[in-house]
Structures are given as C-alpha cells and as structure tokens.
Amino acid sequence: MTMHKVTVYILGILFVSQFMIAESTQALLKKGVTAYKNQQWEEALNAFQQALKEEPDNPLINFNAGNAFYKLGKYEEALQAFQKALNTREISLQEMAYYNMGNTLYQLQKYAEAIDAYKKALDLNPEDTEAKYNLELVRAKLKEQSDKQKQQPPPPQKKIEPSEFAGQLKEEAEKLILQHRYKDAYYLMIQGMNSDSTVAAYQGFISRLKDVVEIEEGEGA
C-alpha cells in the first residue's frame, strides 16, 4: 500500500502568508525538518514538540509533528496531531492532513474510518491519485475482512449442565416412555424447560421425543 506522504511543510511559499511564525519557532521547525529528512525521527519530533510549546494550535507545526509520530509508529498520537492540523483555511494542508489521517487509521486497522478520511481528502483534491489508490485498497481490505468474518464458524456453544431437577424430570419422562406415553413425556420436558433452563441439556432427547409424537399423530390422522 502507498503509505504516507513524507513532505514536511515549513518554508513553502503557499504557507508564508497564512502562518505567522515567530523566528525562534522557525528555527525549531527548520531543525525538525532537517532531522526528518535525515530519518532522525526522534530528534525531529523533539524539535516539533518544542515548537508546539510556543504555538500549540499552529496547524503547520501539528502536521509536522504528526509526520514524525507516524514514522515512529505512534499512530494514536499522529492521528491527534493531524486532526489539529485541520484547523486551517489552507485547503492544501487540510487535504494532506486528511490523507495522512487515512494512512494512520489504516495502520490502526480502522478501515471504515480510513475510507472516510480518504474521501474527505479527495473532496478537497479530486486529482490526488495516491488517495484514490489507497481508498480502493482499503475498501478491498474492508471487504476481505468482512468476508472472512462471514466464513468463520460460529463459536461452540457452552455445554449446559443439567440441574438435579432436570435429571429427575428426565427420569420421569423415561418412565412415561416405558408406558408408551410419548406425548406426556414430551410435554413434561417442554414444561420443565420453561421453569428450568438447564433442561435444555437434554435437547437431543426432547427432539427425539418430538419426532415420535409427530409420527404418532400422523398415524392417527
């Protein structure tokens, strides 16, 4: 799967007019970007987090921090950072944040939510071929997951342990059977099951009795 656009915005012309960043914060961002490009994820994250102490609501810094969190496999933290990055009027940054949220949600195996994030990215940029590809891939993954769940056998039912009452009831029913009173034996068990659910432990016995009763009734018709 095509995963995670690695572009880290910092000095792009598109963002200079949108984000007023203090000089000290710009230095931290530059340090973080350099570390990020060198695949020094921890150092990059540390720089971005220092910048966030100065400007915690800055969407650009949160986006950069989300990238670093993602590279470190800290997907929950990455997701939170990308969500904060959405608080911007800059459509391009919003689209990238939704895209990266889709990738992050995929890693968390939240496939339905990942699909929703990719759709939002495509609403903002219908020409994003990577988002289109990932959207279809996650849709296929979700369908595969659903098909596997349908194919799985139902969990085995817990064995019912009959109570003392249920055991005595079966003994009475067996005595009635010896007298060829199959219908009485059957209804005795059914009535007993209404008052004691553990009588269901003898479901096979009850089912056989029911078959005999139906045969008797059929012969008498």
Structure description:
The chain has 11 helices and no strands. The longest helix is centred in the middle third of the chain and has 23 residues, at 129-151. Helix 2 (23-37) runs antiparallel to helix 3 (41-54) and helix 7 (111-124) runs antiparallel to helix 8 (129-151). The chain folds into 2 domains: 13-151, Serine Threonine Protein Phosphatase 5, Tetratricopeptide repeat (Alpha Horseshoe), CATH 1.25.40; 164-215, no CATH class. It is an all-alpha fold. The termini are far apart.
| Name of the top-level CATH class of the largest domain | Mainly Alpha
Helix/strand class: mainly alpha
* CATH-assigned homologous superfamily of the largest domain: Tetratricopeptide repeat domain
CATH architecture of the largest domain: Alpha Horseshoe
Tally of strands: 0
Low-confidence stretches: 6-18
Number of helices: 11
Shape label: rod-shaped
List the helices and strands and how they pair.
Elements: H1 13-16, H2 23-37, H3 41-54, H4 59-71, H5 75-85, H6 91-107, H7 111-124, H8 129-151, H9 164-178, H10 182-195, H11 203-220
Helix pairs in contact: 2-3, 3-4, 4-5, 4-6, 5-6, 6-7, 6-8, 7-8, 9-10, 10-11
